[in-house]
Amino acid sequence: QVQLVQSGAEVKKPGASVKVSCKASGYTFTSYYIHWVRQAPGQGLEWMGIINPSGGSTSYAQIFQGRVTMTRDTSTSTVYMELSSLRSEDTAVYYCARGRTFISSWFDYWGQGTLVTVSS
Amino acid sequence: DIQMTQSPSTLSASVGDRVTITCRASQSISSWLAWYQQKPGKAPNLLIYDASSLESGVPSRFSGSGSGTEFTLTISSLQPDDFATYYCLHYNSYFRTFGQGTKVGIK
Hints:
The structure holds two protein chains of two kinds. Chain A is mostly beta strands. Chain A is 0% helix and 50% strand.
């Protein structure tokens, strides 16, 4: 069965970076795009960006440009999301989610979420 | 960027009630819209895609309609398991946008 399994919770200080992983299984890794979505405590869902595991190309939401980097390792079917220059407002649960195409596709499977806490 | 305006932000309803949630897009998105249910501490769960297609395994009391800029999620008879927060998502472009969410609570 399709699974997206994310790395564990992180606590970081302001100004630091965090790297969250999302390991895919149960399907052909390079056939589906991976998106990252975050949710601050008590808030709604915010789309961060997309990576094509096949070629590694990425597109990011403008508000994260320059701070976010998405990469993949096809040998382990894992996607990574690194967010730098962390501030308290980045405290959130970060989700990876699968989509069939670059556009015109919804998210059908989600990871379990990774809580990132930014605190001095 | 396409903005999604979801309403209401909260609603209170009783078991058995018919519930309707609306999402409006700032420009036409054809039928490129999905609906998700989210419970506390859990990832969102897909209910509807392409505006009106029911995801496999989702109860038939959930339905979606609309196209262009106005969309509706309807729960025909609210069940205890349906008390949750609901989000719409557009996928008309690579830049996805969610609605602000609708929390469905017990009256």
